[in-house]
Structure formats: structure tokens, C-alpha cells
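Honest question from a wet-lab person: if I give you the sequences of every part of a complex, can you actually get the arrangement of the whole thing, not just the pieces? Trying it with mine:
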Amino acid sequence: MNKPALVVIGNGMAGMRTVEELLKLAPEMYDITVFGAEPHGNYNRIMLSPVLAGEKQMDDIMINSREWYVQNGITLHAGDPVEHIDRRNRVVRARSGLMVRYDRLLIATGSKPFIIPVPGHQLKGVLAFRDIQDVESMLAMARNHRHAVIIGGGLLGLEAANGLQRQGMSVTVVHVSDALMNQQLDKPAAQLLQKALEAKGLKFLMNAQTEEIVGPDRVTGVRFKDGSVIPADLVVMTAGVRPNIELAKAAGLHCDRAIVVDDTLQTYDPRVYAVGECVQHRSATFGLVAPIWDQARVCGAHLAGAGVRRYVQQTSPTRLKVTGVELYSVGDFIGGEGSEDLVLRDARRGVYKRLVLKGGRLTGAVLYGDVKDGPWYFKLIQSGADIAAIRPTLLFGEALSARAA
Amino acid sequence: MNLSSDHLAIRTTCAYCGVGCGVQATPKGDGTATISGDTLHPANRGRLCVKGSALGETLGLEGRLLYPQVRGEDGLRRVSWDAALDQVAGQWRSIIAEHGPQAVALYVSGQLLTEDYYVANKLMKGYVGSANIDTNSRLCMSSAVAGYKRAFGEDLVPLCYDDLELADLVVLVGSNTAWCHPILFQRILRAKEQRPEMKLVVIDPRRTATCELADLHLPVKAGTDVWLFNGLLSYLARIGAMDPAFVEQHTNGLTAALETANIDCADPAAVARICRIDPALLLEFYELYAATAKTITAYSMGVNQSSAGTDKVNAIINCHLIGGRIGQPGMGPFSITGQPNAMGGREVGGLANMLAAHMDLENPEHRDVVQTFWDAPVMADSGGLKAVDLFKAIEEGSIKAVWVIGTNPVVSMPDADQVRRALSRCELVVASDIMQHTDTNEYADVLLPALGWGEKDGTVTNSERRISRQRAFLPAPGEALADWKILSLFAQRMGYSGFDFRSAHGVFAEHARLSGFRNTAADVPRMFDISGLAGLNAREYDDMEPTQWPVRRLASGQLEVEERLFADRQFATADGKARFVPTATRAPVNAVSEDFPLVLNTGRVRDQWHTMTRTGKAPTLADHTAESFVDIHPQDALLHGVREGELARISSEWGAMVARVQHGGGIPRGSVFIPIHWNNQTASDARVGALVNPEVDPVSGEPEFKHTPVRIEQFRVNWHGFILSRSSKALDSVAHWTRIQGRSFNRYELAGRNVIKDYSGWARTLLGVHDADADWLEYEDRTAGVYRAVHIVDDRIEQCIFLSPRQDMPSRAWLASLFCKDVLSEIDRVGLLVGMPVEKGADAGPTVCSCFGVGRNTICQSIVEKDLKTVQEVTACLKAGGNCGSCVPEIKKILVQTRVEAAEEKL
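Yes, you can. This is the full assembly:
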């Protein structure tokens, strides 16, 4: 046992991607031990939506099977979450009591769904949409229950709603504001989206404040501030996530909204790194996969001792994984003072596109219905290219702009 | 006698220019007709120009005036013919009773058939007892009439079209024949192709399409024609290029004419300086003229429309007389008239200073002949007011009632805003027209629906004195009546006898009889004599073949026709001799000044006619020149701060208008050219008539359309745009607009000054789309000021609007083509807001050949790709230029340009 020990807390996408990056650079450098709360190998959480919708099977979304851990000499403790970090002695303790010493620690505990603490939120039939367990519960309930209520009309909520509806449930999405996906869409796009989803059979309650989850034992309904009640056999809370930082906090690591890391993904303790949804980098937290892949690359390199990379935040696009809805959002799509808009609307064809320009450069895009030029816009945003020359055709896409140029 | 192989085809004549081509119309039974050239007609032998070819597109009833209407407090309302004519007759009677016969007037048109004209003239001069009947022909060829009368004693066009093919030199003066009389131009060109030694000289300040195929172009300064021809007369006399025997035996006045010419035109160098042309070029022309016996000098508006128009005509005729170049095949001074029946109007005396059948108002003997023939109660005995004075008198109030027939003086008259003022003050304005909405009809108290081309029946006379039948092949729409009929019904209400005509044939027979009445050498001889046609019965009149006058019936019963006059060298003067007329030089009345530094020249474009009431309906004709424009030399544009493609305001002392600046019309420095066609029905502010100075020739009264001092300045706008729409739009809120007829859509070119805050709301209001759920696509770049929207109804494009602060909008061609589709494809829809097909398709470019719809880009591409070298090769390849040939000069130009560009690119 001459090799230094690397302990990874969290068997999710961020943690394992970092390990993969590390192995690429320095396959023999550490003895690696991984603790995971879920009793599985490592899977693609993003693909839970298609699984719920019945478009994918669980096998389809596994990234690393148990054999992979074995082949790479990694000790995996799945279903045994770490409960304590002793930084002075450089030891972690798992729920099972197992204690493992580390030379380097990687925290990748991700985030936890935010369960709105309204009365009744602990009733049976109230779920989050975070992991395989949630999906399996939902699939089970869909088989013999009728009414699903999704609280939270964001990306995840809409994917859950779509999935449950595809499983045959009557689904109502409850949203606190007047526009769906307000983190990623402007109002016109949100309205188109709502119309399209309504056409697919989803119901929406907008500007609705949930007051109570009603039910004797398991859920039977949801009551709102205005006193109205709708029936519910299943309530899915998709009202956002919170970085999962209790463990780090308890260990005395500096946290703000999440674990604060520097450009190398190091925490305030030089032996401890953190990646993924549990970190805060230059006041930002993360929820999309692209920046997390970047973090993993940087962190992996530093763990490997090849520490020349720096993590630089970059904008990343959002797509909604609901079949038949084409949607692409990237960058600063709100604009405002000092920015300019290019807008195209074709309501009948279900197309809406908006580009936000600042100082002759593209800074944001919302595409609805026709997203084929999304990657091109993303590239233009990233490169900060001067688009003055192609402005007249910019919104009509890459092919025409190439013709015009 | 209908010799057509197609028994349904009706042989008639074209409604447009004075060439008078034969047309074969085959009605399709749905109000439309197939149009082709009449191969039996001697004027055109089956050929038609683009305007003639598109006659079928002008037959639709949209916009037609179909019922009599009377203006009341709340606008126009439909009334019966009886009510309308009773009202007019009642008002005329009381005005005449109170103010005398000089207080009423007719203002008629070279669009009228001879029969209509005859009745109008008879009514005014023999029954009302006033000569206040003038015609838009005053604006067109009255100088030619006056010139002929001064030289020959009567209004006589000496030659015929065949002479153009027999000539060795054709001099075109002030005539863009290639565009305005395309079929005659084609005849000249074909003759020139067969006999390359035949020369063509063009005298015109502009380098027009006519110049493209000329041997010599003399770009004289506007208004200097008299210097040029005085100089020629002087030159011919000096070098002895004369026919002394002819001059001696058959003319008078050479000495005086020469003396006048020699005052300031004896030195060709001085003439060249005044005319602002190269002295060598001038001498080349003089030498060519002197050396060529068979010379024709053909002229039209550039000569006639001048304050020295009559002198210009006589300066030209003088040169023909000195060498005896008249009366023989292939020679003579040839006035080419603008209108289809200008000549017919002249024959019946339809101008204020004529009587009838080539007789004079002031001549008591002539008056006696006519009064006796008509059995008229009261004869006008002195000339009436000519057009410009007529409208002045209306404004001043001495004329209280005017009846405008078949013409649009608010657009076509000089100082046209004065005409508007006059009509708005006039007690009673009656308008007979085929269209409901014209700029003139807006001022009418009574609107009377007349028959249009294809519906009316009668005769017209073309520029070579050839009388042809116009025959009806469509039923009368609504309650429309023939003009002769309307006037006859009115005359009967006025209590006049002699108007019980039952058909056009009856009118024509009377007209023909009058021409022969007391027409003997011993009595009152006139060269105008069509008495040979007086005895035609109705059937013979219907079957009448195109016939030149004079036409007399010999004792044998045969008709005798004179193709060309003066073969016997006998003129219509008292002594039988032609007269030289001294023509002292004088500049146009209004000179340019610091305030108005440019000379405005006006004229036609190739594919439009007059005020567009008919040609404006034909999509085929809209493609060549869509908008009114002001052509200006690039250096002048720079000097005056206007830019090609942008709008400019052009103003004179009399009025102002707005048009798009263009170069390339061959305009010399110091001048601008603006077409005459656009008006308030087709554009917001494009009536060039409003600018034209109301100066007239002292003899003919013809206005000086070709020389008005103007200035030009930028017309600043904030945005440009266009609308294509299936419906017509009211665009009063927009600073500048032009309407262009498309195939099942209207196109509007727009420009605005207003700041648009809410594009979407503004556009929806403008296009009348109030339904929030309408299928409405839009693109908006607000800060850049770019907005585009398309309105779709039932998967079919209904309308679209494109706006931009610059002239950088997509070509209208592809969007326009979508209006022919009943359903838009998905890929069409994607391209809508781009304004282009999203899959790379060919853009044909602006239309060059209207007949086959061939665009400029297509032609350029073929020239380069297939290495085409001649127009014939282009035609063989693309058909372009193969039908009417009107675009051949342009193709030739494109050919040169493209080949030069291609050669440069290779270098």
C-alpha cells in the first residue's frame, strides 16, 4: 500500500467523470475508494426522463457498471453513504461504520431536490425526481393511479410531467409564476411551450401557490392559497434543487450556498476537492452537465498532478427532453439595458427564435420549434465573434448567413 | 371581310400609340381574350409590341366605372342615365342662358374614336356655338399640325410607313421610337439589316434605347433643334445641295427663311456650340443629309412639346423643301403621333382652332360649307380656348362647366395642380371614363361610364393617314355606352336636331360625306377627302379594310387611294406651292436659374401608356419599370446630394413630386428625365405634370413639356419598405408609396418618416390584420429598424410587409411568385421571412424581356456560360427579344457590358 489514497464521496456523474479524467492521465497513481448513496453503479441522471417516458430502459443509461470499477481497481461502496469527514485524521466514516483514510478527498455529493415544506409534504405519494428510486416509484404508481400533480414547471418538472403522462396518468403541472421554465425561456417561448404541451394533453395551473398536500395517509389532493383543491394520487416536487453540502459543512469546509472552490476545484482544504452540483465557483452554482464535464477535466488533471488547467465558466445550452418539443436556450436570453434583440415568430408553425446581442456580439439565444442552428449560435456566443456583417441573416441560420457572407 | 383562319377572331386595332397596329382578338367567353398581331394589317403585318401584346391583361372589369353617378353631399351615388344626362343638360342650358355659349367646354382625347370625336365637335361648334372643345392631342401633336398647315396649307402627313423602308437615311428627332413606337422602329431596323448602307440618325438630348442601334446620335442641348435645322438649311444652301427647279416652281419664301437662318446659324461651329455637340458630329450629319436624297425626318414629342414646337417642325420641313425631298418614295417630313386616334381627331376638327373635315373656323366660306351640311343653328366663328388657356379660364370662372372625356388632365396637363384648382372651383365637372378612380374623376360632379377598348366600335386613323376599324369583341359592361352615343343622347336633351345617330356607321357616313361636300377645285377644295367611303353600307363599314386617305370613288366605282401626298408637287395652299417658313431661333421660355438649375425632360417608359388606367392593370407591363424615377447624370447627383436608388424631391416654380433616383438613362449633365405615367392612383406623389411649366407654343398652343427648370434634393426618409398584398391598401399615413400591379397581387414600394415604436401593431393596422390568432409570421430587429411580417390565410400567402432603414431588402420576385400558389409548401414557408427560397434557387433578376419574362441575370448568365456574342444568339438561346423586340436594344447593351465584365474578370 504505497500509493496515496483517493476517496470519492458520491458515485454520480460528476465524481465518476473526474475519476475517468484522472485515470486517463494517471491510471496507477491512487488507490481509489468510492462511496455512493445509491445501490447502483454509475448512471446518467439526465436520462431518467426518457426512462420515465418509457423511451429508454434502465440498462440504456448506465455509464459504468460494477465490472468497470473492478477492472480499474476501484473499491466501490454503493448504497453506503459517507456520514462523517475527519479532516484532522484524514478519515471518512460511512453509514456502515466503515472508515477509510484518504490522502486526497473528492466531494461530489451533488444536490438534493427541494421539497417545499408545506403541510403534508411527508405524505406517502409525495416524491422528488432525482434518482432511479424516484423513477421506479413513479413508474409503479403510474400503473394503478390516475392523477399526478407536478409542483414546479421547470425543466425537470416538465420532463416528469411528460413522462407520467406517457405512462397514462392525468397530469397537472403547478407553477408558481406565469411562465414555464423561466430559468431558460423568455415569455413568448414559454407560452409556445405551454401551448404545445397543452396540446399533448398536459394541464397547467399557473401562478399557483401550493398551500397543502392533502391526504389522510397517502396523498389525495393538493390545496392552493386561493382555497381550491385538485385531486392527486402522486405529487412530484420539482421546485428546484439545493446543493448537498451538509457533510462538507460539518467537516468545517468553507461553504456559501455550496462548497466554495477555486479555479482548480480545490476547497479551502488543499487535500479536498469538490466538483459538480455541490460546488460554488465564483459565486455560481451548477445544474447542467456541460460545465460539470469541464470541472471534471480540470479537477482530474490536478489530482493527477498535471495541474496546469483552470476551470473557466462558460455558458451552456439547455434542451428539453420532451419528444416533439424542440427547444434550445443558451446564454443571456433576457437581455435588457444595452442589449439588442432579433426576434422571429411563426406561431402557426410553432417557431420562435430570439437572439440577444450586446456590443455587436451574440450573447444569448432562445430557440423554440426550430433549433437546428442552436449549436452555431452557441459557438458564436463562445467565440465572441463580431456578427455585424451577418446580422441581417443571423437569425435565419448558418446556411443563409454563409450564403450572404 | 374577315380573312382570319380562326373564325372567332375579331380584327381590330391597338388602343395605344399612333402606329395603329392591327390586332386579332379572340374572345375566350369569360371576358378575356387572346391577343395577337393581325398579319393582314399593313402597319404591323402581325407584329405587336409588348404593350399591344398585353392588351388581354387590361380587359378585366376591376376598377371599371359601370354606372352613371352623381356627386351629392355624401359622395357619389348611382343614378340612371336619364337622371344624369338631364342634370347635365339642365345645368348646361342654364349656364349658356346666363353666361353664353363660351361658358361651357369639352376637353376630349386622342383615345376617342373618330365617330365619338365627330359628334363632340359637331355638338360644340355647330349647336352650342362655341369652339371651346380641345383635346389632349393639344399636348401631343398640335405643333405638328400647325407646322404642316403653315408649310402645306393643310394638315397633311405627306408619306407612309413603307417609305421608312425605302429611305436611305432616317433621322429621328425627339423621338424614342424604340420604346414609344416599337413596331415602326422594328420596321426601320429590319430595313437597315437588309440594307446596311441605310443610315439611322437620332437627335435627342438623351441617349435613349433608340440610340443603341443608330449610326449617329446627336445629343443636342434641349430646345436647340431650330438652330440645328436652320444650320442645316443654311449649309445646304451654301454648298448648293438644293433642288432649284423644285424650289422655284413649287415653293415660296426660301429667301426669307434663309435670311432668318443665316442670322445666327450660318456657322456650323456656332451651331455646334449652341447645340452643345461636337462640331465634327454636326458636320457629319449635315454631310450625310446633303448627300442623301431619300431622307425621312421623323419626329414626335421632343419636337412638338416645345414653346418653339411649330418652328421646329417648319425648320425640319424647310430642309426637306430646299432639296425637294418630298412627295417621292422614301422621303419627307414625318410626324409620328402619340395617340391611337390623334389623326382622327384632326380630321373631324376636334381641336379648338379647327372646324371639321380640315376646314378652318375663321374662314367664312368654310363655315358656310359646314353649317350648310350640318344644317346647324349657330356656328362658332372663332377659335376656342386651347387646353392650357381652357383650364385657366375654368379657374378664373369664365368657363362654368367642363366635360372631360377619356382623358386625365389632372395628371397629364402642365401645371397640373392648376388643373386641380380649376376643377375644384368649376360649377359643373362631368367626366366620361372607363375607370371609377382617376385623379380627374375625384373632381367630377357627374361620372358617366364609357365603353373601353374591345367594347367600342368605330374607326381610328394612324400616323400614315390609314383609317382602320376598331371592332367590339366584348359585350358592354354594366351600363357603359359609346361616347358618340352619350354625346348624342345629351345633344337630344339639349334640344338639338341632327344627333339621331343609331350607330357608329351612321356617324362615320356623315363624316365621310362632309369630307366630300363641296370639295371641288371650283368650290372649297380640301385634300382631306374620304368621300369614297361615304357610301358604305353597314356591312361594308363593318368589313372595312385599313384604308389610307384621301380616298375617292372613281366613276368606275373603284376606290382611288393616295399612299403618299404631293407626288404631283401640288400643295394645299391657294397657289399650290409649299411655303418655307422663317424660323427665328429662340430659347425655351424659362431658363434655368440658381434656384432651379436643372432642365426637366418628360416622356414615356417602354411598357406603360399615359396615366396607366389601362397598362397599369397588366402585370406583364409592370415588371420593366415598376416605379416612377428621376434619371440624372451621376455627377449632377453628386452635386445635388441625391443618391441612386434613394428618393428625391424634384420641384419647380409650379409644383413638386417625389421619385427614385436612377442613372443610366443616358441623360446629359444639367438635365433630369421623369416619366409621365405615375399619378395619385399609383403613387403618393409622382405627378410630373404638377412641375411642368404651362408655357405654350404661340402658334400651336402646345405646352413645353420637355423644358422646365427644376431643382432636386434628397427626400429624407427613416425607413424603406414594400408590401405585397392580394388586396389594395390605403397608405395615406405613409410618406411615400407606389403601387405596382402584379399577377394576383398589388405591390407597394414604401418609404416613411414616422418613427415606428411597435412594429407589429403598426404593421397589423396597416395591413388590416386585426385577428390576434391570424397566421402571422414576423421577424424583428428593432434596434436596427428591420421588420418583416407575412400574413397567411388558409395556407396561402395573403400579404407581406418588409421594412428596413436601408435599401437592403430582398428581391420581390420570389415572394411575388408565391402569390400564384394556392398552398405554400413547408420549405416556402421557411423562406418567407428571409424573402428568398431557403434552398438555393435562381434569381432571374429584373425583367428585360416582358414577352417571355426573361430576367437580366438569366441573360447575363447565359452570355457568360454559353459565350453568346449577338442578340440573335441570345434570342435563340432564351427566346428573349424574339417576340416584340422592344428589349433588343437593352439586350444589346447587356451583351456589351457582360462581355466586357467577363473579359475583365478573366484578366
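Two things worth pointing out. The interface with chain B takes residues 340-349, 391-393, 395-396, 399-400, 403 of chain A (CB under 8 Å). The longest strand of chain A covers residues 339-346.
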